[in-house]
Structures are given as structure tokens and as C-alpha cells.
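Whiteboard transcription, Tuesday session. T.W. wrote the C-alpha cells on the left side:
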């Protein structure tokens, strides 16, 4: 039996994203506007802290039918959230030093008009992601540029086999719909998934392999109801 799901109209997708934002208790949905076109959702409006801009984007991504999110939400700190650049820089350095996943000795940081820029190198992708996680919750931050590069200590000869095995173990992904190629520690993945969350999972698994320096995620999103559902056993 094939799984058939009606493809959402733009208006339906817009309504679903708005409903999901209202469902999320950490987001003030009234401050955020949503438009949708061909699976691309655009978020507008303003929030008082940068972390809420990030949260709104993550909420939109988890809605079925969303293929991409354009986050145009502006960060406008309220009086209680305003901080000058010196205060933000000091708080950022302190926060990075106290987080166990961040090797702060390898990082350089600057702040201008609430815009934090971070550079340097780490050995693993999760450490770079931790930099964003730590900084986006600081008061006064309006924008973050994470230019930290991932530089693993050594190359691994079985990167492709390791990633393919991880994809086969995944309960979320259909490994038969994905192809992995590796050249000079650069991983290229092609194929199809059914949601942004699956797309993110593909990239996470690729970065988890030892020795990976770059991941080129060329996977496309084919929502349920528009692809060969019989491949999944429906």
C-alpha cells in the first residue's frame, strides 16, 4: 500500500508554520510574520534577542512541507537587553571559556554594533556548532558570523564506509536513497530525503565521521506524496 499525502498549498503551509510558532511556548508568535511560496518559508518581524530569531527558524523547519527557510527577522534589543560591545565581548569570552565543548584557546572573537565574529579552528563539527549555541543566548547580540573552520588532526581512510554504515543504521533516513562520495577529506552526499530535519540529519552524520574537513550536502527534499513512497515499504 502506497502512502499518499496531499501536497500543501502555499496558504496551507503558511498556516501550519504560524500554528507551529504559536504552539512553541518560547516564541512570541505575534511578533513574527510568515509567507510561503513553493515550499520556501520567509520569516519577518522583530524579536528582542538573537536566540529567539534562531528558535523561530528551527520551529519553521520542523513543519512538514517546508523545504527552505529565509530568516529575515530583525533583532531589536529592548531596554533590558541592550548591552554595549565591550560588555558583549566580555560575556562572550566568559561563556566560551565555561562551555566544555568549546576549545576557546583556538578561537578569536570581535564585536561591533552587537555583531559577533568568531574565527579560529576546531577538530570537530560539534565544537563549531557549540560556538553558535553558546553565543546566541547572550544579551545584546544582534548577529553572529561563525568563521571557525573544522580541521581534524588526521585523515581517516574509511570515511565513506563509516558514513554509509551510519546511514544504514539510522531510523530516520532511507540509506538506499543516498550516495556518499569522498575525496581528500571532502564528503559529497547526493540523493533524496523528505524533510529539512532529515536533511540536517544527513549532514550531522557526515560530519560525525573522523577526518572530515568539508561536507557538500547536495541532497534534495522530496516531500511525502511527491516521491516513490514504495521505497520505504508503504
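and on the right, the sequence the group agreed on:
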Amino acid at each position: 500500500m502506497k502512502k499518499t499525502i496531499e501536497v500543501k498549498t502555499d496558504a496551507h503551509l503558511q498556516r501550519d508554520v504560524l500554528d507551529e510558532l504559536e504552539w512553541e511556548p518560547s516564541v512570541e508568535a505575534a511578533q513574527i510574520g510568515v509567507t510561503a511560496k513553493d515550499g520556501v518559508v520567509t520569516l519577518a518581524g522583530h524579536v528582542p534577542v538573537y536566540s529567539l530569531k534562531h528558535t523561530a527558524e528551527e520551529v519553521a523547519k520542523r513543519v512538514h512541507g517546508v523545504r527552505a527557510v529565509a530568516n529575515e527577522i530583525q533583532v531589536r534589543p529592548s531596554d533590558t537587553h541592550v548591552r554595549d560591545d565591550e560588555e558583549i565581548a566580555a560575556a562572550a569570552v566568559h561563556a566560551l571559556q565555561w562551555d566544555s565543548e568549546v576549545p576557546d584557546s583556538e578561537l578569536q572573537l570581535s564585536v561591533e554594533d552587537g555583531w559577533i565574529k568568531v574565527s579560529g579552528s576546531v577538530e570537530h563539527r560539534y565544537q563549531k556548532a557549540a560556538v553558535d549555541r553558546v553565543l546566541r543566548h547572550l544579551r545584546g547580540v544582534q548577529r553572529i558570523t561563525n568563521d571557525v573552520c573544522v580541521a581534524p588532526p588526521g585523515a581517516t581512510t574509511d570515511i565513506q564506509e563509516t558514513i554509509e554504515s551510519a546511514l544504514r543504521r539510522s531510523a530516520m533516513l532511507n540509506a538506499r536513497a543516498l550516495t556518499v562520495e569522498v575525496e581528500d577529506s571532502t564528503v559529497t552526499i547526493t540523493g533524496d530525503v523528505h524533510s529539512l530535519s532529515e536533511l540536517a540529519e544527513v549532514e550531522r552524520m557526515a560530519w560525525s565521521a573522523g577526518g572530515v574537513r568539508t561536507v557538500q550536502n547536495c541532497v534534495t527534499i522530496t516531500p511525502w506524496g511527491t516521491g516513490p513512497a514504495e521505497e520505504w515499504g508503504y
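Someone added at the bottom: The chain has a mean pLDDT of 90.
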